[in-house]
């Protein structure tokens, strides 16, 4: 493992940017395959005001690219695409079962 | 991804058992490769009394096997082996750099 190995708590503070450099939000949670230990999705905190009323947007991990220049992650998405994306309230986290994951993957063309 | 996909917060509550079925402790933190999203080590909370004075023991993720029967993880270790293992205080988490990781891997024969 050549990359930085850090606590998931620190990854969960990371900012997420569009390719154009706009800050979209931050990683609120990491969804992990509990057997393999591989992150599968992040729950992106996007929208809202001062943390109030922000929903969580599941993003397939494969879409995130770590960018050392911003010490954060870049996704090939913009705000308009996110506004139409699957999301849930922070107090109503769904079960990330096969059906749910397939629906998220389908939205993102994966 | 066929396995359960869950929040890292839930993985961090999981118990860790020896092969003989003794509860060794619980997962306190997950150390992740921030580029690949793969968990590399867990910080096992072991020892102490009622959560007071417990150190953290880095365990290579490859040593943990999820066991549905106990809804937790099993490691090929016992308490005696852990008592001699690398550890750190919960308020003095080291940088998991190449040198540190190599020292942990070496202790566990990896």
Automatic annotation (TrEMBL), chains A, B:
<dbReference type="Pfam" id="PF05239">
    <property type="entry name" value="PRC"/>
</dbReference>
<dbReference type="InterPro" id="IPR011033">
    <property type="entry name" value="PRC_barrel-like_sf"/>
</dbReference>
<dbReference type="InterPro" id="IPR027275">
    <property type="entry name" value="PRC-brl_dom"/>
</dbReference>
<feature type="domain" description="PRC-barrel">
    <location>
        <begin position="6"/>
        <end position="81"/>
    </location>
</feature>
<protein>
    <submittedName>
        <fullName>PRC-barrel domain-containing protein</fullName>
    </submittedName>
</protein>
């Amino acid at each position: 493992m050549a990359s930085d190995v850090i606590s998931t708590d620190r990854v969960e503070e990371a900012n997420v940017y569009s390719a154009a450099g706009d800050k979209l939000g931050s990683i609120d949670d990491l969804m992990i395959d509990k057997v393999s230990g591989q992150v599968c999705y992040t729950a992106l905190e996007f929208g809202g005001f001062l943390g109030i009323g922000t929903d969580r947007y599941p993003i397939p991990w494969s879409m995130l690219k770590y960018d050392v220049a911003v010490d954060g992650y870049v996704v090939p998405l913009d705000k308009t695409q996110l506004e139409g994306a699957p999301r849930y309230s922070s107090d109503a986290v769904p079960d990330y079962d096969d059906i749910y994951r397939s629906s998220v993957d389908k939205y993102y063309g994966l």
